[in-house]
Amino acid sequence: MQRIKSITLRNFKFFYGTEAEYPKNKIDLEKDNLLLYGENGSGKSTIYWALYTFLQSCLKTGNHQIKKYFSDDETESLKNRYATNGSESGIIIDFISSDGTITQKVISNRPNGINTKGGTLVRKTLNASDFLNYKYLSKLYDFRNSEPINLFPLFVKDLLMFIDFEEEYPLLNGELSGKSYASDWWDYILTVHEDLPRNKSMKHTISESSEEYKMYKEVLLPKFVDLLKNYLLKITEATNNYLTKEFNESFKISFNTDKIVCDFNKPTGKRAKDGKLHKPKIFLTAELLDDKLDISKRDIPNPHTFLNEAKLTAIALSIRFAMLDERGTFADACSLLVLDDLLVSLDMSHRNIVLDIILRKANRHQLLIMTHDRFFFQMAQNKIKHYKQNNWKFIEMYSHKNNEIPLPLIYDSESYLGKAIRYLDLNEYEIAGNFLRKEAENFLKEILPNRYKLNDEGKLKALGNLLSEAVVFSESNGLDKSLFERLNSHREFVLNPSSHDSYDVPKFYSELSDCINTLTELRKIEITQNILKKGTKLEFEVKCVNHGDNYKYNLVIQDDSHLIKEPGKTEVLTKGNINFKIFKEGVELPPKDKNIGDWHNENNSIINKYNYCYNKSDKSGEESFWDGVSFTETSEKLITVKPFN
């Protein structure tokens, strides 16, 4: 499979100049996925539209339709406004195959500067890819309450190009065209329409009595409708699976295929006809999946009048994901999923769901995710880390000026630790120390549960207190205490900004290097935050080895618990307070009888408590804590939420 190796923009939209003048105009992906943060006005969306324009170029019938985007005087030109007349403007994509072969494709204003229509690479990449931004999502809301949702205009503009009918459209002479995509069918229908009789004052080349006219009205139009219906029926089940299983919605949608028709030149009287092409309408409706409702009240003919924005967004995304899954990929082309500020309007729960869906597609598609939301950028980075996907580039974009010309400022987004390493290499010791302080604070916020990192007012403790708490926490939970003690030892010299005013340079360099090494080792620890949240209800059962009585334990977690795994060691579930009830043969034991063994010993974790009970039992239950304990409300085993083995 092909992947994008690099994207080069020359005087295109916000990108001024060429890569020779401004090396950052060439974005090296090296086959990786891209997560890009860009402040508003930084040129972030230029990359989105560059890829879209580039792939769409293979559909243009003539090179003039492509060159107009790079012209000096065309109204549709996308050439940078500060570029001089006659200067080069264009987009260059280097593709790289699995065997390392590089193929360069170009669209530009130079003579012979367009090669995207040659071969099948660009067209197949377009057909296997998808582009999504917030504007697409909003189109599902942009209907008056009094009108139904008709998706056909949206399909024409954004979706038909991705739909392969797998059947070539017939020309009016009965021969096959060699083109099978829905957009090809519809373009041909519109082209032929120009030559059909529409009214007496307009010239036409096809008479109403001809075989060509009959072919158009009785074969081409009905066949297009049949194929469109079949396609919509094909993706309906997948769309509803996304809605109900991924988004956990309690409704399903329908495209009302029985109402899709397309006709031309309808009669308006005994002899008169209207001469119009009556385009198909794809009406979107919904049905509530609630058995408590009467059947007559489950239908939602106009979903936008009943469902909120989040649910309409779920519909829009489910349709596109179903379409993307249906069309698959090509072994000799690239498959892109390009997202620009797609999730900014979603609430946190929906963001999490969509991110999970998107990241699971990384095995089939090269992902390019762009956002101006810093929090979402950091959230996505954490998700990527959770999924252990290493093939990602993290880039940040800002706007700046050079000789009063606005330019994008692009650099690789590093962790605070990465920036500290870079500035240490540049001998910028004070800056490196400040980034190490930020890295230490970030790490401690991640690994420490609330009971250690928050004060009585619920606010984050100062870094000095966090460092001390981390040593206590590590010892209490059986982690490598020495690493946390080493970090704490850097408190006064490296992690205290007031010490940066006067320092012995060789000593400071050594201290910075040691602190970097300590944090590098600490960052090898895998952390799953809040795997058991406060209020979580758990239960397990054991049978007494001596007299065969059944004991059931009902537990309520009182402190959020993290799951932590040091390299080469067994995972640790952090300790916290627990409320519990014990039932013997279904009868709750009174408090005086619940002091069983070391159950109340605070030096034991919940895992140790389970192991104690299991070891005292007849061993008929699950030996593993993760398999033996269940969530009370769902009966699912704890193993279902365990992220690593």
Automatic annotation (TrEMBL):
It comes from Plebeiibacterium marinum. This is ATP-binding protein. GO terms for biological process: DNA synthesis involved in DNA repair; double-strand break repair. Keywords: ATP-binding, Nucleotide-binding. Residues 4-288 form the Endonuclease GajA/Old nuclease/RecF-like AAA domain. GO terms for molecular function: ATP binding; ATP hydrolysis activity. It holds the Pfam family AAA_15. InterPro entries: AAA_GajA/Old/RecF-like, P-loop_NTPase. The keyword ATP-binding applies.
